Amino acid sequence: MSAAPTESDPAPRPAKRQRTSENDPDAPSYEKDVSFWFEDGNIVLVSAQGTGFRVHLGILSLNAEFFCDMSGLALPDRGEGGFTLLHVTDSTRDLSHFLHAFYTRAYFYTGKPTHYDALDSMLRMSTKYLAQKLRSDLIKHLIMIYPPEMAKVRMHQHLIDPDQKCHSLYAIAMAREHDIPDILPTAFYFASTISPATLIQIHSDASDLVLITSAREKIINAAYRDAWGWLFQGRSTSIMCFRKRLCQGRRLNVIHRIALYPEQVPSLFLQDMPHQAERARQDSSDSESESEDEYGDENDRVCSTCLGEWRASEESGYKRMWLNLPSYFKLPGWEALLKNSQ
């Protein structure tokens, strides 16, 4: 028989009961989320940080295939609260964005400017829980921002969060994690327009830094060689040019303007082609026979023959560069990347 406890040997305290929603409804083992706690909800998802989301299994099942059949999961019986408790490994942030996509009207749709943190969370969750429609819409949204077509690369820049200057680095990470190879070349291209000094400050992956800065140099070289080859060719004007001195002067002016801003060379796909500004000036006149006062400074334009050659050369060079874009970043060609799209 054991000795009775004394003041110096107090009796051992009984073990604390585990606080759960079943044995202590007033003190659950999680903190209720303020946005997603519906009294008629029949399932509580508890995040890795201990936040509980009381929602409707029917809504989850309607949007995410994973929740259609959870018979294989070892779930506790419903407690007095009338709901099933499911602990998940997902973060509170990921769960919140995921549920907002289903419950909050117009929280996200393809073409709506959306913060990249939200896009990343929704992509992660839609992939994990087989929410195919949401995942498809997210991928379409990212392809709008980082399209495989050169003609569309500037079309949806308004979808980029203005506070996220390194948006392309987020996109690269999302593409890799969530298997969206379609956007990699264009996302890497956007990254190459970031100055090397800034890139080093905001990105710590050494292999990516080498890849992006190396590709930046390839893009610069290709710009002068292919895209702007007509401007920098040995022959100053078209063989058929009928205003050689003036056309040569204008060509040199364009070269001078490009030389003034070397840091902008990698951004050539995000700007008008040099010939387009010249063409706009040409289009402002009904014909070359109009007076100089109506047309502008004659030294500030090229003849129609030179403009035609310039345009053809430039458009061909840009297309060639875009076709080769994946190779600058050691990626498969466009055809291979797009073959297994989505």
Provide structural commentary.
The chain has helices at residues 57-63, 92-103, 116-128, 132-145, 167-178, 184-192, 196-202, 206-227, 229-232, 244-260, 274-283, 292-295, 304-328, 334-339, and strands at 31-37, 43-46, 51-55, 84-87. Residues 1-23 and 291-296 have low confidence and may be disordered. A 4-stranded mixed sheet has the order 1-3-2-4. It is elongated and about 90 Å long. The chain is mainly α. A hairpin with a 4-residue loop joins β2 (43-46) and β3 (51-55).
Write the layout of secondary structure elements.
Blueprint: E1 31-37, E2 43-46, E3 51-55, H1 57-63, E4 84-87, H2 92-103, H3 116-128, H4 132-145, H5 167-178, H6 184-192, H7 196-202, H8 206-227, H9 229-232, H10 244-260, H11 274-283, H12 292-295, H13 304-328, H14 334-339
Parallel strand pairs: 1-3, 2-4
Antiparallel strand pairs: 2-3
Helix pairs in contact: 2-3, 3-4, 3-5, 5-6, 6-8, 8-13, 11-13
Biased composition (Acidic residues): 285-297
Protein name: BTB domain-containing protein
Region (Disordered): 1-28, 279-300
Number of helices: 14
Strand runs, count:
4
Radius of gyration: 31 Å
Q: What percentage of residues falls in helices of 4 or more residues?
A: 40-55%
Could you say which overall geometry the principal axes of the C-alpha atoms support? elongated
What profile does the largest beta sheet have? Answer: 4 strands, mixed
Could you say how many structural domains there are in total?
3
Structural class: mainly alpha
* Element-by-element helix/strand order: EEEHEHHHHHHHHHHHHH
Strand portion: 5-15%
Distance between the termini: 73 Å
Provide the residue-averaged pLDDT. Answer: 84
Low-confidence stretches: 1-23, 291-296
Q: Within the largest sheet, what's the order of strands?
A: 1-3-2-4
